[in-house]
Design brief:
The longest helix is centred in the last third of the chain and has 5 residues, at 266-270. A five-stranded antiparallel sheet has the order 4-5-6-7-8, with no helix packed on it. It has a five-stranded antiparallel sheet with strand order 12-13-14-15-16, with no helix packed on it. The model is unreliable at 36-41, 45-53, 92-99 and 109-114 (pLDDT under 50). 3% of the residues are buried. The protein is elongated. 3% of the residues lie in helices and 28% in strands. Strand 5 and strand 6 (67-76) form a beta hairpin. The protein has 316 residues and is mainly β.
Length: 316
């Protein structure tokens, strides 16, 4: 057997041309196959084009003047499962290169009929405009960080945003732009340990207005009162006042000017809290909650600040 020696080639003085591949000083050129996504028209980079029942290679699709596609295909020949990635250059014209383009990922199905695509990595970044047309499922404990505005349901019909917990529908933004629970009287806005600071609205439609001290305002029919109106109920469930359409009912009438009290602002009152130890103000590095203390809330009025309106007016 003769000795085979390595030959060098500078690409300037040799040309190799076949029906599908040409090699010359301009590089390696692969002619576009006539059938898209066909194993027969893919160009393989593996021995005999198959390893362990699979084959893969480069393919071209719809290669014309204006739309040119280059992709990588992986096919399991035993069950005809396909996966491929397209690198699509749009708006290309003869003699010019358009930098606009996109990448499409398909898996296990016909073209544009994707069944499953998985992106795995320590960090995956999507920049620019990202459009998801048929649904997005995100799993894992890491969550999702969005640094800019996210538009959900910008076009199309149906409710644009549905929130599930454990596979059960909890709440949604419907196609009228309304936020609503999935079923009546089930979800809360805030919880005792994590509350919202302010709620601003033009109309507040509710049954009871419940206060932290256990007192509440409730509608007459919930108290068995036939006259339309509102009742004031204390923390023991006792009716202490009723403001009806025809009459006002009170246990004892006294002048409010004779009631000792402190003058406080709205901002002070909403930051007062008799039980700060149940409110979460942050989290430790291991995810454990950090609770508030008395130093984190507005102090209650001091004895020196409590007086009656009548005495204040008299300068006493």
């Amino acid at each position: 057997m003769g000795v085979v020696t390595r030959q060098s080639w500078d690409g300037s003085d040799i040309t190799i041309v076949s029906g599908t591949v040409s090699i010359d000083s301009g590089g390696v050129t692969i002619a576009a196959p006539s059938t898209a996504y066909s194993t027969s028209y893919s160009y393989k980079f593996t021995p005999n084009a198959t390893i362990a029942g699979t084959s893969w290679g480069v393919f071209a699709r719809n290669a014309d003047t204006n739309n040119r596609y280059l992709g990588l295909q992986n096919i399991v020949t035993t069950n005809s499962k396909n996966a491929w990635i397209e690198f699509i250059a749009t708006g290309k014209t003869s003699g010019a290169v358009d930098v606009n383009g996109s990448i499409s990922i398909y898996c296990d199905g016909a073209v544009n009929n994707t069944s499953s695509v998985t992106l795995t990595g320590d960090s995956i970044t999507l920049t620019g405009s990202t459009t998801i047309t048929s649904g997005l499922t995100i799993q894992g404990s890491g969550g999702v960080t969005i640094n800019y505005a996210m538009v959900v349901g910008a076009s199309g019909s149906g409710d644009p945003l549905l929130i599930q917990v454990g596979g059960t529908n909890k709440c949604r933004f419907d196609n009228n732009g309304d936020l609503r629970p999935e079923t009546d009287n089930t979800q809360h806005v805030g919880v005792p340990s994590k509350r919202f600071a302010y709620m601003t609205a033009l109309s507040f439609n509710t049954t009871d207005v419940a206060l932290d001290n256990g007192w509440s305002l409730t509608e007459s029919y919930r108290l068995g009162i036939t006259e339309p109106g509102v009742g004031l109920v204390d923390d023991a469930g006792q009716l202490v006042a009723f403001f009806g359409r025809d009459k006002t009912y009170l246990k004892t009438l006294a002048l409010v000017d004779d009631l000792p009290h402190a003058l406080t602002t709205l901002d002070q009152r909403i930051h007062m809290d008799p039980t700060p130890e149940v409110r979460v103000k942050g989290y430790q590095s291991d995810g454990a909650p950090i609770y508030k203390t008395g130093a984190d809330v507005e102090p209650f009025p001091a004895a020196k600040d409590i007086n009656t309106t009548r005495r204040r007016k008299a300068g006493v």
